[in-house]
């Protein structure tokens, strides 16, 4: 059964702590993405990766970091430098970066207090 | 500035009452336009990709069309299970993606 998994579904952290969100895909897709979704706003791109060991900043990368050591995995770390980290985080993948639809995971809702 | 605007923000329909959702876009060059369905608390589910003006795609009660400036998602005889938020996204020739804020559709039995 191919797809994208994100874990955990809900995550709670105290302010000042770093937290890592997991994203795994078994679709053999080259490209992977992280988005943030806030009420009343469109999805905003945090980071994306076109190939292993390479990634680029999106529109709102400040306070986030990623790694792409394996094709199937693209974890996102929300650092304490992110000023407003509470949000719904979505991971996506696509066969490539040009004219391909993105397939999304189920999302992780992060709450920082 | 490139952008995507969806209208209306919210739409309530009686079961069986057909309607259309709009996605207007301004990008320097269109590589693709994508429609997604998103249920509350879940990730978006891919519906359609459209590449050029005049193209149409259908799936069950949904039909997506594309012109040079906008796309429509037509919903024919909707059912309560069609209730969701419908998102539109465009990709420009620089491979940048832009998402709209979505139309929240409620179909009343």
Description:
The complex is a heterodimer of chains A (113) and B (109). The relative contact order of chain A is 0.34. The termini of chain A are far apart. Helices cover 0% and strands 49% of the residues of chain A. With 113 residues, chain A is mostly beta strands. In chain A, the strands form two sheets. In chain A, strands 2, 4, 5, 6, 9, 10 and 11 form a seven-stranded mixed sheet that branches. In chain A, strands 1-3-8-7 form a four-stranded antiparallel sheet, with no helix packed on it. By secondary structure, chain B is an all-beta fold. Helices cover 0% and strands 61% of the residues of chain B. Chain B has strands spanning 3-7, 10-14, 19-26, 30-38, 45-50, 56-59, 62-66, 70-75, 84-92, 97-99, 103-108. In chain B, the strands form two sheets. In chain B, strands 2, 4, 5, 9, 10 and 11 form a six-stranded mixed sheet that branches. Classes of the chains: A mainly beta (113), B mainly beta (109).
Topology:
The complex is a heterodimer of chains A (113) and B (109).
Chain A: E1 4-7, E2 10-13, E3 19-25, E4 31-37, E5 44-51, E6 54-57, E7 64-66, E8 76-78, E9 87-94, E10 103-104, E11 108-112
Parallel strand pairs in A: 2-11
Antiparallel strand pairs in A: 1-3, 3-8, 4-5, 4-9, 5-6, 7-8, 9-10, 9-11
Chain B: E1 3-7, E2 10-14, E3 19-26, E4 30-38, E5 45-50, E6 56-59, E7 62-66, E8 70-75, E9 84-92, E10 97-99, E11 103-108
Parallel strand pairs in B: 2-11
Antiparallel strand pairs in B: 1-3, 3-8, 4-5, 4-9, 6-7, 7-8, 9-10, 9-11
């Amino acid at each position: 059964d191919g797809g994208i998994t994100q874990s955990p579904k809900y995550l709670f952290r105290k302010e000042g702590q770093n937290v890592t969100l997991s994203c795994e895909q078994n679709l053999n897709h080259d490209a992977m993405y992280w988005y943030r979704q806030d009420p009343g706003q469109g999805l905003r791109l945090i980071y994306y990766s076109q190939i292993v060991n390479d990634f680029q900043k999106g529109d709102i990368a400040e306070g986030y970091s990623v790694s792409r050591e394996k094709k199937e995995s693209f974890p996102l770390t929300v650092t304490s430098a992110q000023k407003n980290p509470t949000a719904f985080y979505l991971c996506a993948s696509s066969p490539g970066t040009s004219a391909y639809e993105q397939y999304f995971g189920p999302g992780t809702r992060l709450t920082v207090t | 500035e490139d952008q995507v605007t969806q209208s209306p923000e919210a739409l309530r329909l009686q079961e069986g009452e057909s309607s259309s959702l709009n996605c207007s876009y301004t990008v320097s060059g269109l590589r693709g336009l994508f429609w997604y369905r998103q249920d509350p608390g879940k990730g978006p589910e891919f519906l359609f990709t459209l590449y050029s003006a005049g193209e149409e795609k259908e799936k069950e009660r949904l039909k997506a069309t594309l012109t040079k400036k906008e796309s429509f998602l037509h919903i024919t005889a909707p059912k309560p299970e069609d209730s969701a938020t419908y998102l539109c996204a465009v990709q420009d020739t620089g491979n940048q993606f832009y998402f709209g804020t979505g139309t929240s559709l409620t179909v009343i039995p």
